Structure prediction request, 356 residues.
Amino acid sequence: IRVLGIETSCDETAASVVGLREGAAPEILSNVVLSQIEEHAAFGGVVPEIAARAHVEALDGIIEAALADADTRLADVDAVAATAGPGLVGGLIVGLMTAKAIAAASGKQLLAINHLEGHALTARLTDGLSFPYLLLLVSGGHTQIVLVRGVGDYQRWATTIDDALGEAFDKTAKMLGLAYPGGPNVEKAAAKGDPARFAFPRPMKGESRPDFSFSGLKTAVRQAATSIAPLSDQDVADICASFQSAVADALGDRVARALVRFREDYPDSEAPALVVAGGVAANRKIRSTLEELCASHGFRFVAPPHALCTDNAAMIAWAGIERLQAGLADPDAMDFVPRSRWPLDSVSAPVVGSGR
Ligand code: ATP
Ligand code: MG
Ligand code: FE
Prediction:
């Protein structure tokens, strides 16, 4: 079984071919990602119209490259899977319509995939993880803890009540005059800073509600930054280090809560696991905090390679394969309209109809 995946929900134009042979581990035959970071950098964030236009210009070539890299002709592909939401609707339309056209012209099956389901199932592609497990998704647009019980069977345990974590990194960077995307630059600056200089708040820490919040922390960073003028490189480094340490602390508190709940809900689970995904998962301070937390709670810590943690099409192709294998491919995918909002726990297993 071989699936062509297409991802255009945000600022990456991506295509990939993933294969699965009976009795063997899945294989990523190609994984082509074109980042639009440079197009958006001047604006300090993703501009939806620019993103949609860039997807239109790049997608055909990216798909051709993915097929060529995989040494695969369209005729050898069993299905076409495209991200159908959530995300920026302009980009989603470009990707899903292209996939519909390819599917219609080649007589292949179409799969309309939820982007978050792609992130949620990646650890099964890379590590062969079995259900159930916990997913921590921390990216520019999402901050969630999700219980992954099976294909199409997800329960969101926590989400952010304001900013996404990647967004908090990007806004902090902007306030400090660091370039976009902010995450990597904040981490770099933090390496030379004193994490104890500023006592930033740990939003939600110790609260019984399971969710995340980062806007209070952002405000505290702004106050610290504006109270010192002009900011020296050392000030910037100290703010970044203090911010990162507050983030790791707050995140650790929320995740610890979920690990405890997982233990309660699945007392017989012999090898419970926490998977991280999303661009923020690249952060070493956050990683080491989560690693220690998992070790102390007896959880396996699974962090797929960075290229598969950030937006890519291999995870979309793989989610398509998972759905095909589970008999959960939506027979009405050709009629699917892209959804800018599409919560993961509403991606229930579709009722399998007569097909078409
Ligand atoms: P979506 O939310 O739709 O999945 P996205 O494009 O916003 O998409 P990703 O590409 O997964 O998300 O991640 C980008 C985010 O990750 C940005 O906010 C970026 O600042 C953050 N990021 C990247 N590297 C690091 C790092 N080393 N430390 C902290 N944050 C980082
Ligand atoms: Mg991105
Ligand atoms: Fe994503």
User: Anything to note?
Assistant: The two ends are 19 Å apart (CA to CA). Residues 9-11, 87, 139-142, 166, 169-170, 181-184, 187, 278-280, 282-283, 310-311 surround adenosine-5'-triphosphate (ligand 1) (CB under 6 Å). The mean pLDDT is 95.
